[in-house]
Amino acid sequence: MATSEENSSLFPIFILTLMALPLVPYTMIKLSRAVSKKTKSIHCQCSVCSRSGKYRKSIFKRISNFSTYSNLTLVLLWVIMGVLVYYIKHISREVQPFEPFSILGLEPGASDSEIKKAYRRLSIQYHPDKNPDPEANTYFVDFISKAYQALTDPTSRENFEKYGHPDGRQGLQMGIALPQFLLNIDGASGGVLLAWDSWSLYSFTLDSGCHLSLKVIKVYGKLCHASNVIYILLLHETVFGSQV
Fold it and tell me: Residue ranges of the J domain (predicted)?
C-alpha cells in the first residue's frame, strides 16, 4: 500500500478526472450549438445589408452575449483544470528503471577496473565530504553508491540481474486518490467521509430535481398557456356564438 503522502498526491488527479468527465462533453455541446447558431444567422451579404445597423453588433453587445453565467462558469472550470494539470505535472515523479552502468557513465559490460575508476571520479564530485550540497549528497547515496554496489557486491549484482534492482524484488505500490485527512486509520475522519458522501448524494439529487422541474415548466408551461387560449376562444364562441 502506498504512503499517505503518495495517496494525497493522487487526489488532484482524481479531482481532475471528475471535472473532465462532464466538462469536456458539455463544452463540445456548447461549441456545436454556437457554431450552428452562427450558421443559421447568416444574412444577405449585399452592400445595403452590410451597411445596415440591424445586422451589425457592437463589441459591447458581443461581450454581453458571451458573459452569461454558464459561459463564465465554464471558463472558470477550464482555468481550474489548467491549474490542476500544471500542478500534477510538477508533483508527479516518473518511475525510471535502475541502470547502474548509465549512472556511473559506463557502457554495459565494463570491467571492474573501469567501474572503480568511474566510482572514484564521481565520488570526488558528489561525495558529502567533497560537496556540501544536499542534492548532491542525496544523489550520491541513492544512485552512485547503489550503482557501484550493484556492480561489485556479489549479492547485489545477483539481485540486480534477477530483479533489476540491487535491493531485490521491488513490490508494486497501489494508492487511493483521496486526501490524507480522509485516510486516517484510527477512524477519526469517518464522519468527514460520511458527510462528504452525503453531501455529494444530496447535491446530485437536488441538481437532478431542479433540472427536471425546469424542463417540465419549460415544456408544459407553454402547453398550459396554449390550452388556456384555446379554451377561452371556444368558451367565447359557445356563449356569444361564432362571428361569420
Answer: 99-164
